[in-house]
Amino acid sequence: MTLNGERVRRVIRDNANWTSGQTSCRIIPCVRTQGQAVFDPNKPLGLADATAPASFPLQPITQITPMRLQGKTILVTAAGQGIGQAAALAMAAEGAQVVATDIKAPLLASYQGVSNVTTAVLDVLDKAAIARQVASMERIDAVFNCAGYVHNGTILEATDEDWNFAFNLNARSQFWMIQQVIPRMLAQGGGSIINMASVCSSVRGLPNRFIYGSSKAAVIGLTKSVAADYVAQGIRCNCICPGTVDTPSLGDRINSYADPVEARKNFVARQPMGRLAQAHEIAPIIVYLASDESQFATGNAFMVDGGMTI
Ligand code: NAD
User: Fold this and answer.
1) Residue 170 C-alpha to ligand 1 middle, in angstroms?
2) Residue 116's domain spans which residues?
3) Residues of the chain with pLDDT under 70
4) What is the pTM of this model?
5) Is residue 309 part of a domain?
6) Any catalytic annotation for residue 149?
7) Of 61, 83, 258, 288, which residue is most buried, by most CB within 10 angstroms?
């Protein structure tokens, strides 16, 4: 691909990708030497302009790769904020047609003007609504079941209502969604199901997370069960187990403590890296699991936990 220097400089400055047909063209960092541009992996995007004299044209080095999710249609639940939103944006940037859903319509307004994303209001506690959403889509190559709820408390502080609500949102909603998408994926010849679990599950017990940890352990079991049943039919099912991620709902939970500053310190103290994750740090594993790069991976729980399970 030949590009004139101005275009290249502008693209580097804007730190952008652009798409042409089935391929995306990424400008990788380069510096000018004797009129040649050479790859410099130590320079972040944007430095090429600063280091290059303006007198001769920059020779672009381009790396042409297929977008990782080109041609795939992906359904995401709880995409209005937090990890679901970060995943939806990352998958759309990799060329997927993303259907971003959430129970809260106002949150979906954030996708206005975002390429490759359409939105729909979906309450995953509504079985019929899940069926309607799936039926409305021409194809579904991957689904990211992200919706979930954190109950705070020990077994002695847990009510039947708390248990039912958390299990319905964290596990039953995934059962309903997967039951709807599997016939579609079978008809299409395969697909990838990605479920949101947590490090706090069968992986690790954490204080005051009796219901949450139990329900996320159910997600891991559900994931393995679906994977086992459909491994020979091209449907993969995996789940992800994040550590503590600084999302709006975590902020709400922190602010509900009598001393939010102390509460945040305690959340950070759980993380061996000494910091919380940002939602965009969880998104890449979801892109990977939705893509064909992960075609040999199924039935697994993927930790992205800042060292919580070292
Ligand atoms: P969040 O809690 O900030 O946002 C959750 C989203 O879910 C909101 O947009 C909300 O409107 C939507 N939602 C709530 N009820 C819904 C319903 N019935 N149907 C559809 N959407 C609904 O997001 P988050 O913290 O990124 O959490 C997302 C998932 O990640 C949850 O399953 C959570 O358990 C899991 N998780 C979070 C963390 C963390 O530290 N934040 C760690 C591990 C796992």
Assistant:
1) 9
2) 73-304
3) 1-65
4) 0.84
5) no
6) no
7) 83
